[in-house]
């Protein structure tokens, strides 16, 4: 009997009828076996016995109902057991009266006066003791039945609670995934206007001084906007090669704005351009390198170095400039929209498996370094979904310090313009 297949009333009634019927057959067989050879079978006694068994079968549901209504629970068991004892004596008295006072005269004929049933004789001579014993047996069966139902109910309740807990866990995981996705989408939506406004400001600064340059910048800006607006906001990662192409268009705009005072060096370790990175993950770092570094140089050409290398199971991305160094807002953790957005995106995508570090560059300038898990296009790791923020380490961070990551001996390099 499990919660999946409950003990129904119909089944319970069938079991009770089968029990009493079997008991009647066994007692009838015993009575028949007592008749000696040539002696007549006492069919009237057998009929009286079967009538008594049938009466008990009819009273069994009443005894079970009494057990269910007044169980012997802790705190009230004395009064309830006393009630059941009184009820048992009353039921035994009624059965004794019906069996001996009604069924016997009907089935056996007139009864001698000295053997007729009387209430006083039934109590004094303990003639209803057999009925009390039968009542106690039914009472015990009722307690067992109640205990069985309680176990079933507890199992069903435990199963229901487990099912609800599993559903709650599934709902929580689904909501957390939706929240992470919404957070990433919000970060993308925040980053795009930030990038657009800053680029438009660069265009407006050249309107009066370099109209030809403005036309070139607008063409480059159109290409940049097409990349940004055509990208699917649900895409969490893209090949580093596409990110590098986007950065070249962006740096073309910045070179026009800075009147060729910007020099760019690229160094991509073989195999890293196929690695997967979050879209626009390097653009805020390059923007800071140009805005806080190169634009502050007036007596020479400034250099921005872009590089990527693989260190074990991680991909290390570096953006380095040779400007005046860390700005005051970085030292005081006032990082601005771009860096704060980058930090939040790394935290949402990779948790403690990613980091963003700002450190002084040797010889002046700033190095911004991003470390993320290495996942290349077409690899089994790339086909597996990202575990958004699931790592059990510290969250992605922005800090002053250094994290050295050697480049390959033979990097794929490019210097422009």
UniProtKB/TrEMBL annotation:
Residues 381-417 are annotated as: Disordered. GO terms for molecular function: phosphorelay sensor kinase activity. Signal peptide: none annotated. Residues 151-192 form a coiled coil. The keyword Membrane applies. Keywords: Coiled coil, Membrane, Transmembrane, Transmembrane helix. SMART domains: HATPase_c. Residues 220-376 form the Histidine kinase domain. GO terms for cellular component: membrane. The chain crosses the membrane at residues 45-66, 78-98. InterPro entries: Bact_2-comp_sensor_kinase, HATPase_C_sf, HATPase_dom, His_kinase_dom, Sig_transdc_His_kin_internal. This is Histidine kinase domain-containing protein.
């Amino acid at each position: 009997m499990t919660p999946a297949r409950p003990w129904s009333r119909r089944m319970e009634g069938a079991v009770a009828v089968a029990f009493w019927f079997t008991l009647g057959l066994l007692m009838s067989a015993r009575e028949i076996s007592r008749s000696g050879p040539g002696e007549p079978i006492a069919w009237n006694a057998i009929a009286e016995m079967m009538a008594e068994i049938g009466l008990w079968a009819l009273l069994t549901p009443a005894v079970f109902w009494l057990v269910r209504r007044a169980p012997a629970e802790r705190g009230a068991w004395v009064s309830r057991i006393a009630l059941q004892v009184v009820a048992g004596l009353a039921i035994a008295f009624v059965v004794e009266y019906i069996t001996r006072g009604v069924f016997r005269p009907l089935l056996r004929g007139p009864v001698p006066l000295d053997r007729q049933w009387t209430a006083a004789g039934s109590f004094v001579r303990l003639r209803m003791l057999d009925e009390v014993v039968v009542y106690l047996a039914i009472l015990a069966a009722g307690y067992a039945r109640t205990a069985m139902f309680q176990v079933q109910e507890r199992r069903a309740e435990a199963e229901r609670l487990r099912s609800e807990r599993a559903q709650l866990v599934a709902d929580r995981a689904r909501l957390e995934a939706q929240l992470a996705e919404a957070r990433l989408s919000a970060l993308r939506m925040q980053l795009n206007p930030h990038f657009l406004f800053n680029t438009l400001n660069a265009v407006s600064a050249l309107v009066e001084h370099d109209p030809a340059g403005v036309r070139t910048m607008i063409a480059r800006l159109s290409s940049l906007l097409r990349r940004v607006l055509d990208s699917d906001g649900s895409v969490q990662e893209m090949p580093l090669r596409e990110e590098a192409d986007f950065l070249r268009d962006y740096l073309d705009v910045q070179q026009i704005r800075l009147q060729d005072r910007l020099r760019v060096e690229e160094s991509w370790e073989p195999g890293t351009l196929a690695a997967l990175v979050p879209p626009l993950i390097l653009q805020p770092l390059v923007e800071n390198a140009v805005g806080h570094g190169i634009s502050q140089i007036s007596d020479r050409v400034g250099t921005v170095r872009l590089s990527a290398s693989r260190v074990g199971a991680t991909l290390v991305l570096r953006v380095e400039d040779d400007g005046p160094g860390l700005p005051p807002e970085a030292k005081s953790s006032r990082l601005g929209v771009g860096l704060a957005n980058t930090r939040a995106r790394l935290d949402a995508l990779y948790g403690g498996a990613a980091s963003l570090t700002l450190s002084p560059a040797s010889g002046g300038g700033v190095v911004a370094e991003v470390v993320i898990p290495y996942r290349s296009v077409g690899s089994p790791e790339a086909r597996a979904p990202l575990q958004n923020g699931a790592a059990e380490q510290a969250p992605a961070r922005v800090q002053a310090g250094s994290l050295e990551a050697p480049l390959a001996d033979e990097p794929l390099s490019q210097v422009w313009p």
